[in-house]
Predict the 3D structure of the following.
Amino acid sequence: MVFRKNQFANPAGLVQFMQKSAGRVKLQPDHKLVFRASEPGRLVLEARLPQALADQLQSVGHDVQWWPDWTWKAGAICMIDSDPKAGLHHAGADPRRSTYALGW
């Protein structure tokens, strides 16, 4: 998660969120949030991914489990990538839920 102009719209809400996360989230100096997995080594793949991928991941020690295709449990990720030199914003939203990504 990156903040516009290095600011968060609701700083108190961010602090509350980080406190509730009990060490699973860390704010880096570059203003990105890093989330730690609650079950290290576990990967949950959507069923539309190939079994060969799961086999490779298991061969290097991951505990692979499966979800149905396009499940809401996989998240609702939105992102905005800004290119200040070109003056462009690229945005994307996860199709699993009613989400939007906007740039300005």
Notes: The radius of gyration is 17 Å.
